[in-house]
Design goal:
The protein is mainly beta. 9% of the residues lie in helices and 28% in strands. It folds into four domains: 77-99 and 130-482, 3-Layer(aba) Sandwich (Rossmann fold); 519-575, Sandwich (Immunoglobulin-like); 590-676 and 683-716, Trefoil (Acidic Fibroblast Growth Factor, subunit A); 726-840, Trefoil (Trefoil (Acidic Fibroblast Growth Factor, subunit A)). The strands form 17 sheets. Strands 4, 5, 6, 7, 9, 12, 13 and 16 form an eight-stranded mixed β-sheet that branches. The chain has a four-stranded antiparallel β-sheet with strand order 1-3-18-17. Strands 22-29-28-25 form a four-stranded mixed β-sheet, with no helix packed on it. Helix 2 packs across helix 5 (213-227), helix 4 packs across helix 5 (213-227) and helix 5 runs parallel beside helix 7.
Length: 842
């Protein structure tokens, strides 16, 4: 997954890259129905079964059709998302690498000289590399019951009618136990996103850009089978790659399995915690791929509620027996494991590194690539060929999609009774003593980091406990690190993330979410809260009045159960005199790709249910919209006109989508809460994951807006009015001073009017602020340059903490030294919530 700055490499730019999102909060679904069209010894070496030819369905695609559908070697199998809420699978197909169904790579014991890795890795290789011999071949059952296989769930998008036969062929070629019945060991059950068996999503049409998700599906089931041959696999197929569908599938999977593999991800963005409810399943190992485009965080893997999996490059050590791993960073292709600081997720209690104020990605890693790649079978998509680039539909693959199902399967081997109730299994990796149970990776990097935080992208700069961003705490050394070693209760706290509140307002924040493995009564306490605010001991609700003036406090909330077990999280409170400008300027909301068309209130109608519609752009009171930020934190804003707000109505149009009209403004209604995503101009209702849409994407006047799945079409590309960007240094605004970005006294002049660009840029009349030469170091000057959509250094994200973050460096736009001087030149700094790093923006 490309993310925020493979700035040293020229790769195509995924359209989900996001900037400018305001903070968001999932307020709960409305009643309105919305439409969304212990490792042991290593076993003896075995080669793939002789006399077991491939049994792939050779009539799935003709050779000519397969060749026509083949993507260029070394490219991402799944298409680039066109929307913030569209996800991408993390598998790469490398046709130049040999397939691995005829030669085993290495011996199982050190007594035999290992072969050089030259063919694709198969199950014996993967199990040997991670010390999984006995656990893989003898376990994988519910504890004490060898008749009941442990279930590993996999969530992917779209249908794959060949998946049963493909998995059978993979297992037969690698001499894994055969699948005899749908309930037997190692076999596969397929469900739709709701957990039913009918109807299943149809296979994508041969011309569909979504065809390659079938390669991902095949890889996922193959890797779980490779690591845990006795495990049963439940595959949940989402209707689409949109998070609204994948989220439903994740919920369904978590109901039937304690181990859920997700080899997909999207962009990390400031409002992402609004969607975390779909992955918040205490007691379930929710495992996500970090991504394949190098340094930069991705979501959902950036959430502290899940295990984020990085990738390594696995090869023989110089002794010809052991194995070495380095950070996966393909030197021939523009790919590598993702890692970095999240812009929207608070740091979990078990993570203690200081380089990221928020959650640091990743937690653990496994193989993403080897000299010969990793073997998979798929009779569809990019692996489909009779010899052009594989052997009988056999593919060499790479990517964090390889590592993710491997880690998920190891969780299953390690926890035959399932993870401890009400715990987040990612925390087990960080428990005392488990560092000896992981192979620490000490070489390689996935990008360029500043020297002060080099461990975020460079394994050579790992912390004392061996932690680094790309590979986390290391790679598996058996299964011990993946099970809890705690003998007392475990308290887990969901960090709400940083708050940016308006000074002088009274707020009641959402209750801090906490869980206890012993189901004990929990007591909440806090230190460091802003003056005038307190926490309710029995509920975890923080309330009070945000003090006036500039506030920059770090609070610690500690949750304790009746046995004395506890956990603490730290998060910030920012508040300043922002001159009341924490919203977009008033004016037109323009459909940028639809000629001369704006969002309109026909006839200045102020009645409830009045249509919000398209109309030719004009200076008119019917197009004088405002974006209103709420007093509370972590919430989205409202779009208002004439004292009414734009909201999702119960009525639908002929296409079946819910219409948008005027409603009485209510800060508690999820139906009128909107995110300004910046990238692609989408305005998203996060509670439902749908975008404000002109359904026709034409110039037709008086077409009522509706909400549809976010796909990046022209009718979802909107630009809000320009407005001042006000500093946390009272009375100062971001300004253009002769081509240099400065802080100066707010006057409302045109040189202080900023527009949120479609590529996440902040624009002054066509000129964009950028960090000079994409330099990641503190003190890098901020300049103004003619806007260029291909220039990643002009892309910024707006965090819920009021910071403007460079997406290539994950550093913040700052007034150096919190200077109050007019004309102070701006620069990059580490993001720690100093007043000079706080901004009120569109």
């Amino acid at each position: 997954m490309r993310r925020f700055g493979k700035h040293a490499r020229q790769v195509s730019r995924p359209r989900w890259l996001v900037a400018g999102a305001v903070s968001a909060c999932l307020l709960g679904l409305s009643t309105v129905a919305l439409t969304s069209a212990s490792a042991g010894t290593t076993p003896p070496v075995s080669t793939p079964a002789t006399g077991a030819p491939d049994t792939m369905a050779t009539d799935a695609l003709s050779p000519a059709t397969a060749k026509a559908l083949e993507v260029p070697s070394g490219t991402q199998a799944c298409p680039e998302p066109t929307s913030l809420l569209q996800m991408q699978c993390q598998v790469l197909i490398d046709h130049k690498k040999p397939a691995g169904n005829t030669t085993l790579l290495r011996p199982a014991t050190s007594a035999v000289k290992a072969l050089a890795i030259s063919t694709a890795l198969g199950p014996p290789d993967l199990r040997a590399a991670y010390g999984l011999g006995d656990a893989s071949t003898q376990d994988g059952y519910v504890s004490g019951d060898t008749s009941t296989p442990e279930t590993v769930a996999i969530v992917d998008a779209y249908g794959d009618s060949h998946i049963q036969s493909d998995l059978t062929s993979y297992r037969k070629n690698w001499a894994l136990p055969a699948c005899i019945t749908s309930t037997g060991a190692g076999c596969l059950s397929v469900f739709n996103q709701n957990g039913g068996t009918s109807p299943l999503p149809a296979d994508p049409a041969l011309t569909s850009i979504n065809l390659s998700w079938e390669d991902e599906t095949a890889l996922d089931v193959d890797m779980v089978s490779a690591i845990c041959p006795n495990c049963h696999i439940d595959l949940f197929q989402a209707n689409s790659d949109n998070i609204s569908d994948l989220g439903v599938a994740d919920d369904s999977a978590a109901k039937v399995s304690k181990f859920v593999s997700n080899s997909w991800s999207g962009g990390d963005f400031p409002g992402e915690n609004a969607y975390d409810s779909i992955i918040n399943h205490p007691g379930v190992a929710m495992v996500f791929a970090s991504g394949d485009y190098g340094f930069g965080a991705t979501w959902p893997s950036s959430s502290g509620l899940v295990t984020s999996v990085g990738g390594t490059y696995l090869q023989n050590a110089s002794d010809g027996v052991d194995y070495t791993e380095s950070v996966w960073n393909d030197q021939d292709l523009p790919y590598g494991t993702a890692a970095g600081c999240s812009s929207g997720e608070g740091k979990p209690s078990w993570q203690a590194d200081s380089g990221c104020a928020n959650r640091t990605q990743n937690d653990v890693a496994a193989v993403a690539d080897a000299p010969g790649g990793i073997d998979e079978y798929s009779s569809s998509g990019d692996c489909n060929s009779t010899g052009a680039f594989g052997q009988d539909f056999d593919c060499a693959t790479e990517g964090t999609s390889v590592a993710t199902p491997i880690i998920t399967a190891i969780y299953a081997l390690a926890n035959p009774n399932g993870p401890a109730a009400n715990t987040y299994p990612v925390s087990y990796l960080y428990q005392s003593g488990h560092s000896a149970d992981l192979n620490q990776v000490g070489s390689g990097k996935d990008g360029t980091c500043e020297s002060t935080r080099a461990y975020l992208c460079n394994a050579g700069a790992s912390l004392a406990n061996g932690y680094n961003g790309p590979t986390g705490l290391g790679t598996p050394k058996g299964i011990t690190a993946f099970t809890s070693s705690a003998t007392a209760n475990i308290v887990s706290v969901d960090n709400p993330g940083n708050y940016d509140l308006t000074a002088g307002t009274r707020v009641t924040l959402p209750a801090i979410k906490a869980y206890d493995s012993g189901s004990s009564t929990l007591t909440y306490s806090a230190t460091g809260l802003p003056s005038g605010m307190s926490i309710a001991a029995g509920t975890g609700v923080i309330s009070g009045t945000m003090p006036s003036g500039t506030v920059n406090d770090t609070a610690t909330v500690t949750v304790t159960d009746a046995t004395g077990a506890s956990a603490s999280v730290h998060f910030g409170f920012a508040g300043a005199k922002m001159n009341g400008s924490y919203h977009a300027g008033t004016g037109e909301v323009d459909l940028v790709h639809v000629r001369n068309t704006c969002m309109n209130d026909p006839h200045n109608n102020t009645k409830v249910d009045a249509a919000v519609a398209t109309y030719p752009c004009a200076v008119s009171s019917s197009q004088d919209w405002s974006y209103l930020m709420p007093a509370g934190p972590g919430q989205t804003g409202q779009i208002s006109i004439h004292g009414k707000c734009a909201g999702i109505l119960g009525g639908r149009n002929k296409a079946g989508y819910n219409l948008v009209g005027l409603v009485n403004c209510s800060s508690t209604s999820s139906l009128q809460q909107w995110d300004l995503t910046g990238y692609d101009g989408e305005i998203v209702n996060p509670a439902h994951g749908l975008c404000l849409t002109d359904p026709n994407s034409t110039t037709a006047a008086n077409t009522q807006f509706d909400v549809q799945p976010c796909t990046g079409i022209a009718g979802q590309t909107l630009v809000v009015p320009a407005s001042p960007v006000t500093s946390g240094i009272a009375g100062k605004c971001l300004a253009d001073s002769g081509g240099t970005a400065v802080s100066t006294a707010c006057t409302g002049a045109s040189a202080q009017k900023v527009t949120l660009g479609l590529n996440g840029s902040l624009q002054f009349a066509g000129y964009c602020i950028y960090n000079a030469a994409s330099n990641p170091n503190d003190g890098t000057a901020i300049k103004l340059l003619k806007c260029n959509n291909a220039n990643y250094s002009e892309e910024w994200g707006i965090s819920a903490y009021g910071q403007i973050e460079s997406l290539t460096t994950e550093k913040c736009l700052a007034i150096p030294g919190n200077s109050t001087a007019n004309g102070a030149k701006l620069e990059l700094e580490d993001c720690y919530g100093e007043p000079g790093e706080l901004w009120a923006v569109s």
